[in-house]
Amino acid sequence: MPHYHKLGKIPQKKHTKFLKEDGVSLYREELASSVGFSGIYSNKYHIHAPTQTLSVTELPSPNDRIWEDAPIVQYHFLTDNKKTEGDFFTARNLFMCNPHCRISTAIPTQNPDYFFKNAYHNEYIFVHYGTGKFISEFGVISFVPGDQIIVPKGTIYNLQFDNAINKLLIVESDTPYDIPKHYRNEYGQLDENAPLSERDIKMPEYLEIHDEEGEFRLITKFGNRLQEHILPHHPLDIVGWDGYLYPYAFNIHDFMPKVGRLHLPPPVHLLFHTQHFVICNFCPRPFDFHPDAIPVPYFHTNVDSAEVLYYVEGDFMSRSGVKEGSVTLHPIGVPHGPQPGKIEKSLGGTHTDEYAVMIDTFEPLEITENVRETMVADYYKSWLEK
């Protein structure tokens, strides 16, 4: 996580008496920690005990239909062609997954009347379209197109949109998202040569504090299981917190790309990494400046990674036929690269004008029936010379 942060009121010392305004009753301290007690953590102070629950109901599991025996070839599919009515969670459609990573999109049409918690997965939420507020127990983050919101597992939150024109890319990870160590000095501060700085990171701005009793819905996702928890108090009853474990956001338009004399490989576009995959930001940048440079990427077989590209906006230099909301999947063991004519067309170019999010997984991805429903037929034949 970026650095130490705090909001609201907290006692001078942890694990000490913290009285409410009446001078008699206590606020309830909760430690949210990672890696047992050995990782980053935050201390939260509740008006009510966070353990209180009136009832628990099992809900139907998401119908994530895996495309059994799908051919292992390159794919191009159009996520905008798969729409499900609902909010930021119920509108999600899963396209790809493996034991450590789940990649979905959502086109929300309404705001939720409940809160949500992903108990087993950290979430990366890319806001393609839409403005609004990410509201969590750690505070409010106002979001705009291009924001990439990191949500630690176990965070209670929801998204409230300002209007009905919205689109999200969601990537779930069973291990935390982190900013690469080679971008940071020994104290954790981002180096001068990093493609982002602490000034670019959007922190929780303020707390929404609710001291309300009644019946409040919390939908919790445990892997592939969903449960509805009815709480006897509003889930946003935190008066203050501090620590390193909290949601934050970084906008793709603030990423500072690097340029080389010859083509630089995708690790220079790295933004987040987990134990099982990485996320990169591709942004507008000058092309390579060697007089004989070939600006587009060379042909490539990655023997250890599956490459997923989500196309956001712009003119995509190495790929034909893609548009906003397109996804290409290039599986492990199958070569990929520029399509016919793209190399020659790029010669002499001075810059690229594209935004895209790349997810490179270190294990193969299964694809769902949603890919079959939205894919461009025979995409793998698009490299045949005409």
Total strand segments: 25
Structural class: mainly beta
Low-confidence stretches: none
Strand portion: 35-45%
Architecture overview:
This protein has 386 residues and is mainly beta. The protein has two domains: 51-65 and 82-239 and 246-252, Jelly Rolls (Sandwich), CATH 2.60.120; 255-383, Jelly Rolls, CATH 2.60.120.10. The protein contains two helices and 25 strands. It has helices at residues 342-346, 369-374, and strands at residues 5-8, 28-33, 41-46, 55-59, 75-78, 92-98, 101-106, 115-118, 122-129, 132-136, 139-143, 147-151, 156-161, 167-173, 213-222, 225-233, 238-243, 248-251, 270-273, 277-282, 285-286, 306-315, 326-330, 351-361, 366-367. The chain has a seven-stranded mixed beta sheet, with no helix packed on it. Strands 5, 19, 20, 21, 22, 23 and 24 form a seven-stranded antiparallel beta sheet that branches. Strands 18-12-9-14-7-6-25 form a seven-stranded antiparallel beta sheet. Strand 2 (28-33) and strand 3 form a beta hairpin. It is globular, with a radius of gyration of 22 Å. The relative contact order is 0.20.
